[in-house]
Each structure stands twice: as structure tokens, then as C-alpha cells.
Amino acid sequence: MRTILSLIGAVIIGIIIGYVIPESLVNVVLAVRQISGQLIFFLIPLIIVGFVAPSISAQKGNVSRTLLIAFALAYFSSVGAAFFSAVTAQYTIPLLNITTDNSVVRELPEQLFKVEIPPVMNVMTALTIAVLLGLGTLWTSSDVFEKALVQFRAIVLNLVSKILVPILPFYIAANFAALSFEGTISRLWVFLPVILIVIVMHYIWLALLYSGASLYTGKNGWQVLRHYFPAYLTALGTMSSAATLGVALQCAHKSDVLKKDTVDFGIPLFSNIHLCGSVLTEVFFVCVVSQLLYGSIPSFSTLALFIILLGIFAVGAPGVPGGTVLASLGIVISVLQFDDAGTAMLIAIFALQDSFGTACNVTGDGALTLIIDKVRSIND
Fold first, then answer.
1. Is the pLDDT of residue 372 over 80?
2. Where are the alpha helices (DSSP H) in 93-109?
3. What's the pLDDT score for residue 61?
4. Which of 134, 196, 318, 369 is a plausible cystine mate for 266, CB 3.0–4.6 Å?
5. 52 and 156 Cβ atoms separated by less than 8 Å
6. Which residues contact 175 (CB under 8 A, 6 or more apart)?
7. Residues 6 or more apart from 287 whose CB is under 8 A from it?
8. Which residues contact 152 (CB under 8 A, 6 or more apart)?
9. Where are the alpha helices (DSSP H) in 141-191?
10. 308 close to 333: Cβ distance less than 8 angstroms
11. Given a cut of 60, is residue 101 above it in pLDDT?
């Protein structure tokens, strides 16, 4: 409850600060956002290695099969969400009266003070190292490395609880202060019907995921989902699955139906490869932009090709704000034939709700982890 209240307070305080702060002090907000963000994203690769590698090394069954199933689950969840979004778009977008918003917002001043703390590696490198290091330790039965990985996980746990979680409210407050200062938050009303439809689809897809996981495992998915509100709220503020990873791990560990080692294996892995909410959102928004700028929604065959490729890009997209749409711009241009105006508008609209898509991604990870828990039990 304390975490939830601090995050809610950070959002409210950030919005208020953005409305009342004079331009001369905006650089203070930007500095807080930049420094806290640098610390958070520096820790992300360490979290991935610290949780995924020891979890793999501790496996006794066929871990390669488990990893393959995990990637397949992430891909088909994202693709399934995307097709659900495409079908919904075909029937709902023609009924909406969508207009552009040409209002001018304030620009943030150039940031004067910056502290660069580049991560030791990027997210995908960290994930690859974690998987290979875990597999290598497992295959060689190296007790020394297995104990070292377990000790490293203990170190990372302390870094999460004593550094990452305490600075999250400052990062969130600074983000919302910048958005409210720019006036970007007020633009939400222009696309409110579209965003509301997308959010409802998020909840429907999450319900399907957890229902499917419950049917497959014979366990109550609600016993996982009910612990996820702090992670959902954190994702709304950070707009990043990676930055929310620490809180998501804490939430999943509270569930009685998930094994601890499965959580340590599944949650960090899925936070980087399972982007169902972001993919669902992007597909709906490309249809909105196409209708708005080009007068029609892309044909379903074109959307199908786009979705199949988008699912692959989503698995490899970085767990950072806007990662999915930025990684997929190549197929947006080549498959959907979007021009500069279309791609720019897609990025802008996507940014307005990026936090909700991320929150869906993070929350959906719990359902897939529940399935992986069953798969590992079978393998054992």
C-alpha cells in the first residue's frame, strides 16, 4: 500500500508541478528526470543477468525447451493481441469522428545539466548473456558459478529494494511534470475515444490471457493478477517494462501459486520479449492514422503481414518507452506505406498512451509466467 500511495502521489505532484513551475526552473525537473532515469536504466541489465542467469542455472529439467516455449508464448500472445486489435479496428474506427489536433504546446528548454551513466550493456545483450551464462553453468554443472550467480542475485535484490524502488517516485513525478509543462497531457482529450477503446481492449486481452493460463494450469490466475496493481501503476509512470521490472518481481513474488524460482526466471525474461499491450495499441493506431491521413484503413491482408512481422520485432524491442513503435518503423514504412507525416503522427499518438500499453505488457507477464510454471513442473 505504501508503494501504491507513493506512486499515485508522484503522478499528482508531478502534474501540479508541471502546471505551476516557471520556465526558469524546468531544468531542475529535467535534471531529476535524467539522473534518476540514468540510474534506473543502468540497473536494468544487472537485474536481467542477476535474475535470469541463476534461475536457468538452477534448472533440473530441459531448460532449452522451456526457453523455446517462453519465446513462443510471448510471440503468439503479441500476435494474438494484434489480430484482436485489427478486427476491432475494422468495425470501430469507421464509427469515430477523428480529427487532428494542431494546437501548439510549449517546448521544453534545452537541458543544461546532464549526468551520463551509460549501462554496461544494452537490454538485449544482457538478456543474451544471462541466457547463455545460465545455460553454460547448467550444462557444465559448475557449482562455483552457480553459487556466484546466486550471490549476484542477492546483490541485485538489494540494489532493487534500496536504490531502484526509492527513486522511482522521483522519476515518475519528473516525467509527469515535463508532460504537463509541455501541455501534452491536455492532448489526451483529442484522442480520448480511441485511447479508451485501446485500454478496454487491454483489459479484455489480459482477461483472456489469465483465463487461458488458469485453464491450462488448473490454478486460479486471479491469485497472480490481484498482486499486480503496484506494477501496473509503476508502468503507467515509467512507460517502460524494463524500468518496472523491480516492482513487477516484488508483485509476482507475493503470489502463492507461483514458485519463487519461476518468477525469477519468467518475469525478467517476459519483461523484454512480451509486449502484447504495445503491439495491440500500435496496430489499432496505425489503422487510426491511416484512416485520418490516407482516408482508409489498410486491407486486412496487409495488416496480417504487418502483424506477423511486428510480432518478431516486438520480441526484440527494447523494454524502454516507445521501444515497440520505434523498432517497427521500418515495416510501418515498407509494409503500410506510411510517409513522414504518417510515421510522425503514429509516434506522437502512441506516446500519448504508451504508459497503458506498457502496463498491459507488464501485467500480462504474470499470466505467461503461470504457464511456464506448469511447463517446468512437467519437464521436472
1. yes
2. none
3. 56
4. 369
5. no
6. 14, 33, 237, 238, 239
7. 86, 89, 90, 93, 297, 298, 303
8. 49, 50, 53, 54
9. 143-159, 165-182
10. no
11. no
